[in-house]
Write a structure and sequence with these properties.
The protein is mainly α and 121 residues long. The protein is built from 5 helices and 2 strands. Among the domains are: 30 residues, no CATH class; 42 residues, no CATH class. Helix content is 60%, strand content 3%. It is elongated and about 75 Å long.
């Protein structure tokens, strides 16, 4: 019933107790109010949907990819805001971590191009 009220009256019409919602629905039925008209699904929308279903999606175009890029930008902004002493300390720690620490949890030989790999959804 809540869904029907939302369809006829817009957001939040289903608020209230069950008796109130029944009264609203009864009033809608008695008024002879026709159901809202929705736009017909057309060929151009079907083509757009087919395109979305068949094309591969670049990882950087996903929410995860955007979040990863945002974190990178925040990291660089933080690094730029550091004092020269802090930068030297961080650089030294990164250098001493070596290859083992730098690639933790990542694939061997991963490049920036790998971030642009296509993902089928």
């Amino acid at each position: 019933m809540t869904t029907l009220l939302k369809w006829h009256e817009g957001p939040k019409p289903g608020d209230g107790k069950v008796d109130e919602r029944r009264a609203k629905w009864k009033a809608i039925l008695e008024s002879g109010k026709s159901t809202p008209i929705h736009e017909q699904w057309k060929d151009d929308k079907e083509e757009a949907m087919t395109k979305l279903e068949t094309e591969a999606v670049l990882m950087k175009k996903t929410a995860f990819g955007c979040l990863k890029e945002q974190h990178k930008q925040e990291l660089f902004a933080t690094f730029k805001a550091m004092s020269p002493e802090e930068k030297a300390k961080i650089t030294e720690e990164l250098d001493s971590a070596g290859e083992e620490g730098m690639n933790y949890g990542s694939k061997e030989g991963k490049t920036e191009e790998d971030d642009e790999e296509e993902v089928a959804i």
